[in-house]
Protein 1
Amino acid sequence: MARVLLMQGNQAVVEGAIAAGVRFYGGYPITPSTEIAEGMAKRLPQVGGKFMQTEDEIAGIAAVTGASLGGVIAMTATSGPGFSLKQEMLGFACSAEIPCLVVDVQRVGPSTGQPTSPSQGDVMQTRWGTHGDHWIIALSPASVPECFDLTRRAVALSETYRCPVILLMDEVVGHLRERIDLPDNYDDLPVVRRKVPAGAPEDYLAYQAKDGSLVAPMAPFGSGYRWHVTGLVHDETGFPKGTPAATVAQQDRLRKKLTDHLDDIVTVEEYRLDDAELAIVAFGGAARTAYDAIDLARAKGIRAGLFRPVTIWPFAEKEIRALAAKVRGILVHELNCGQYVREVERAVQGRVPVLAYSKYDNESATPEDLLAEIENAMKGGAGK
Amino acid sequence: MKKTFRFSGTGGQGLITAGIILAEAGLLDGQNAVQSQSYGPEARGGSSKAEVILADEPIHFARVTRPDTLLVMSQEAADKFARDCGPESLVITDSLFVQRVEGSGARRVDLPITRTANEACGKTLFANIVALGAVAGLTQCVSKEALKKAVLDRVPKGTEAANEKALEAGYTLAEKARQSA
């Protein structure tokens, strides 16, 4: 049986997290993500989980990584200012390979910015917020049902690849209420959990991946398997190793454990793209404008379609290249001064014109706004 | 068929709650519904608006740019939002707060919403539910059964009777306005 509900995007994240098996939340509430903390505080005790409101955002993600090392599926949620604070621990989680879910419901920045206004200004912070070469997964929902689905997906990816995953949201979707059909209980929904070691504890090496896999089994602390956790470059034992070879081995494995599985990790959605001359690239809340703008354009005889990256990172490189081979122009619409468009330009390599419609005035673009940009694009390079 | 609503006024008047209830009533009637809002950092006293779209088809862009129905419960909201309406729009004003509505050419129905809440239920707190009854009565956007159920599902326990009374009072205001039109 399904329940038909009017639900906010942030609440759907809460339900998705509960369904995904999240049983620990550590964090500090911040607009426009607060409903996630509020909802988890209510829901976790009902399913035997723990909610911890910490003194700040850094302590929140520190508690989350600790809970995850203890074998519990764990998450936090925040917005830009808090996401900045979490970057140090995110790098630690990348290096030490600690699965966790971090939700960033973006707001206008930098700094405290505009707390209640929509923005997608954290696209690059999501990719490069923590220092050093590192690899990360980020997913961006465009609807309330997708908030539920992608929260589950984000947890599954995090557990599968032993890495932090970012659910990159915006205020448009986080605060939107719309219809969602939820199962009465989540018992029938599969929960993906990290691999745990099967051999003898004395033989366990926490970073030794076997059988062609690049992801090592992860023993929960307290289970009898002893291992060392550090942000220093380490070898299979988990203890620091200062050699050039150790650095290369760690970096290559951390990269390849994601880049070898791009077909599993990267998903995109297409709308009216089959015969399109102009592709609109948009994600999250900005994509909602794009569906309607494309319908308006089609009604005027303009063959426009939507390419919506659901996975923001790793970048949908192969898919964007294929797109560039079949359309005459690409228009990237995002609620920032132009971040994702740089990646699109890099992948397209000048094969077709790449235009940007960047909006950063506290408001979503209306479909009419985007239609005008589409018409301009068709008059310019994309229509010739 | 798409119907767009904007409820506007002051934070604390319950307009976002009213928007949620209307959207839930739409779902109960089998329509698609979205509700969005915007507000400043203040909890109370700042300007507040809630928007609802009801439609048979999928709804993507969820903000309302040209409301079919605009409810205004403060003069500031009237000054700010009336210009977004067209001649085909309906502007419902609360006579206690709104004197002027300028610049839209829309049909205006002026109703004593907050005063009626105070008289029928003893508290101005119920003005949002009176307003919902008036909106539904004037636009027939959702069925009365669905709206009543949505109101009773959403309001705090112990206040059901007063809210039902407020809803009825709103429908009565709408009926009187229709008869005198």
Note: The interface with chain A takes residues 20, 23-24, 27, 32-41, 59-63, 65 of chain B (CB under 8 Å).
Protein 2
Amino acid sequence: MSAKKTAAKSNVSAEELLGHYREMLMIRRFEEKAGQLYGMGLIGGFCHLYIGQEAVVVGLEAASKEGDKRVTSYRDHGHMLACGMDPKGIMAELTGREGGFSKGKGGSMHMFSKEKHFYGGHGIVAAQVPLGAGLAFSDKYKGNDNVTFAYFGDGAANQGQVYETYNMAELWSLPVVFVIENNQYAMGTSVKRSTKSPSLWERGKAYGIEGEEVDGMNVLAVKEAGERAVAHCRAGEGPYILEVKTYRYRGHSMSDPAKYRTREEVQKMREERDPIEQIRSMLLTGKLASEDDLKAIDKEIKGIVNEAAEFSKESPEPALEELWTDIYAKVEA
Amino acid sequence: MATEILMPALSPTMEEGTLSKWMVKEGDTVSSGDILAEIETDKATMEFEATDEGIVGKILIAEGTEGVKVNTAIAIMVEEGEAVPEASAASVVAAPPVVASAPTVAAAPVAPVMDATPDWAADVPVKQTTVREALRDAMAEEMRRDENVFLMGEEVGEYQGAYKISQGLLDEFGAKRIIDTPITEHGFAGIATGAAFGGLRPIVEFMTFNFAMQAIDHIINSAAKTLYMSGGQMGAPMVFRGPNGAAARVGAQHSQCYAAWYMQIPGLKVVTPYSAADAKGLMKTAIRDPNPVIFLENEIMYGKAFDVPVMDDFTIPFGKAKIERSGDDVTIVTFGIGVTYALKAAEKLAEEGIAAEVVNLRTLRPMDTETILTSVRKTNRCVTVEEGWPQGSVGGYICNVIMQEAFDYLDAPVINCTGKDVPMPYAANLEKHALLTADDVVDACKKVTYR
């Protein structure tokens, strides 16, 4: 049973760092734009932003290969961007338009892409955990070496179905990485106020599942831990747990009174631990990129995000006939 | 470039709010994430953060202002060295127009047309088979046909099935495809649904549907809704099956009929076989169906034998009711074990000169309402029969359909014969009174025929 505290490697190429920087920045800018569109009334209902947690999905996607699957909760925009789904289709789903990934019928919390092996976007806390184990089950059944990433939060970690799933996943040696995105708050309830367990990943030990805690603000540490987890699964050794310590800067959803934590706590995290700033300063101090190089990336991303926002406004609402489609799959004759 | 800061919508229902307090003043430099103001919404007082960096050029709405409509410009941000534009910006900015759709509401799909062809041709030989064997045979045939089909549940393998439905399957298909699970319905229903998303065709056995209550979130929220929520990209081709309804003397927690519950859910198909032929033909159709299917069996029926056609591939389509007995005086609409009571009642009624027509629905979703309506238009009277409770019942829905589609044909109010509106008691005498009987059906039929 390993309990390594992961430390980032220093010998990383400029190309890799720039890639991480670009992808994390894409998520942040996309989410900021989504927040703006929400404020303008273009996005309705619930909208959960991923700002602050970018290193988690970017690091783990860097550890995956084609064919691997991912499934997560309703805080899902970052996961979709990181696995390569088109920002236009995501934003248009947020605005409930025809050009969205679910034709406007799913919304922020319910989006999918068969092509990118993204299986949702689930609105029921922890439901994605057994679903993720089931996806891993299907790969093991078919005999390939794909791995599924099942992401869930510290809040979901207290749901009973997580432990039912741990038990069966280890019993059947399913190739699933359980990623606990511990952002320290389940809506407004801090981890300390919801459990006396000293750590969440260690609960897996009771089922015989290996795991470790990871610095979720450090994309390189996340990637390195992800590689260990994936190797474990691909070797047929069953599931693996990563408890990724991260932090969400924004509210739980858009309507968050922000009374459960101090402003200083958030500010401290942003100033001292920000995942994007960490890579940015590595790039600059290591002279791997110039300010101008980074500015060019910023500009490019701003363009992509603005384009996605424009698309999400221009794409028409779904045709009324869509109300009645996709309820049942057609039976083959 | 100067940009307007608009009054944000900070909750799904917010239309206006109070600008309680400005946390910045004109001339302040702000960066992304800084709090600009405190805004009181219909839910709470919230901090409103800057999303871009810039300088607060002008504050347009004073703090303490109530009833500020969402999207009203509340401040103007400028860049270093830029002049503040004139007050034209203070006008209310309307929400961007949503592309208009035609005002007509698309019509719901129409009900299937009545199909009265027999399930198998008259010259096909038949074999007496129990419902238990028919279910097992159907699963075995489909597992031979498609290697992605597997069976998962408690005691389905080594124990050979808590009710012996999976007898012999472990020997033929092995532990990879006949999977014993721990007692953990919520978890394995979720795993099976995930496996279906991943392209497999799971059959999930619940030892009884009472235990599926633990798993109902995955059945409804994960299995039934995903096709719609994904815009048709992926769904859950799978079967949830097991005994439903009252057995005998097992008390309140093991004796509930869930037909009306599942029948309510768009995205699910709901099957309630009566005979062994129904069980076999419908189970094969269920396993092949690309949607989640709820297959409600009945423990009391497992040992009953019926004629089942000896054919290579016998299937029964969904949405096709069966007229179990013809008659002109009253229509009895039922399903599952209810057919037993209906047929017994029809027998007794015949002795008294009342010809009852018994409609076995077989599937509740889709429901063959055309067959019900055709029969009611002929008999002008209807009794529905089910073991479940009266409020929100299958019969209640059928009444609604008949009222809307055949009101003028009715010569009497429709009666719903149901189980009594009580949790199932254990005591033998009380249980007998809680359950539906053929005599209840006879009485109801006499009532609607005014005899």
Note: Chain B touches chain A through 75 residues (CB under 8 Å).
